[in-house]
Amino acid sequence: MSPFLAAIFLHGLCLANAVNLTTVYEWDKFDFVWPSGTDTSIGQIEQNFNPKQVELQYMAVFGERLYLSMILRPGIPATLVWMPKRGTSTTPPKLAPFPSWNLHKKDNCDSIQWANGLETDTDGRLWVIDQGSNNCPSKIWIFNLLNNDKTERVHQFPPLVVSHSDSERLLLDIVLDETPDDSLAYIADLLSEHIIVYSRKTDKSWTITTPWMRWYSLALSPNREARQLYLGRYGWNETYSVSVSELKNQGGSAAVKFIGNWAEHNLYRMVIDSANVMYAAFTNQNYLSKWNVSQPFREQRFHEVGILNSGWPFTFALDTSGNFWMTQRNSTGGETKHKLRTGTLRPALETSGGCANLAEDYRKSQSLVTIMIWLLVFFVVLSCSVIVWLTLRMRRMQTSFRQIPMENKGEMNVLLETKH
What we know:
Layout (H helix, E strand, L loop, with lengths): L2 H15 L4 E6 L12 H9 L7 E7 L2 E6 L9 E5 L11 E2 L17 E6 L4 E6 L8 E6 L5 E7 L14 E9 L2 E8 L4 E6 L4 E6 L7 E4 L7 E5 L5 E6 L13 E5 L5 E6 L4 E6 L4 E6 L7 E5 L9 E5 L4 E8 L6 E8 L9 H66 L1
Antiparallel strand pairs: 1-24, 2-3, 3-4, 4-5, 6-7, 7-8, 8-9, 10-11, 11-12, 12-13, 14-15, 15-16, 16-17, 18-19, 19-20, 20-21, 22-23, 23-24
């Protein structure tokens, strides 16, 4: 195969390996599912709703529903919503407050004030980080999605764990570490130099200090035996990691390990799939990156679109089947539009290092093919030599057999003459 054809082949194979994201829904503008009735407060909320203020932040997936949080801004009636993964028509769905309008009352500390990080566990629970408000402390809400979205647990962080002053905290991302005997949540607080840990088994929370380091985004590796928590710093392009075993020492500190530098700053979202591939998004960028965390740090472009002009253009999550779900925000041309897209990840080439390693594998395979060709030529030449030798040998034997009857005839004549 010529180098040119080989390049085309490798490029095509790499494109085939990239995730093919299909568009499920498109919105020119969002709307909410407004309740019918005479509730004047809801009517006022609907009147004040501003679709242009909708900016999605975090996503979680379970069953046939997507759960989304959005930035708290004037004109946003609820910061935690859900929608179906797929509908019966092409009409994009409206946003439904989760679990109901009753849990989205402003300055009511028994309601969700500002939902940020979301995560679902394998038992069908939705974990929600609530930043709170000026009057309401931060909390973790845990909902049972398999029991009519019932509120299963509300944990209010004590002031020694998370400041009760709204100006001294900003709780963002959350990841879940499910072990045989407990479920632990790791939470990023951008305004504090620590990681927050919450135990569902004991209903207690504590902090692990990371001196001089503040975190924005989190991701958890799938390897339970040597599980690592990956940490992204807002305003920097650095990524770090820490062993989860160090996060169970209540009130202690952890030594974080530098991993590598991304091409862009402001890593705001990342997730790791079951094949150890991390997917990362950066503010004001129109692409996602990836990196196989089981290998030395090497950033690769994963998905890229045209100009978006959006601060937080993507949010994404994985479902239990390994499907990648992503929303895309486009603010070009003075209008803001959104898309929901999905695709199935193909991890086989990722685990071997992606297309760069594929080229190396191809070069190695070409060397092997060359060796095999020379061996084949050797065996062909050897076979031809043997065939020629056998052919000549057969011809000599045939000549010898033709001479035997003539000799026998001469002997018979001699015997006859003797007898007479």
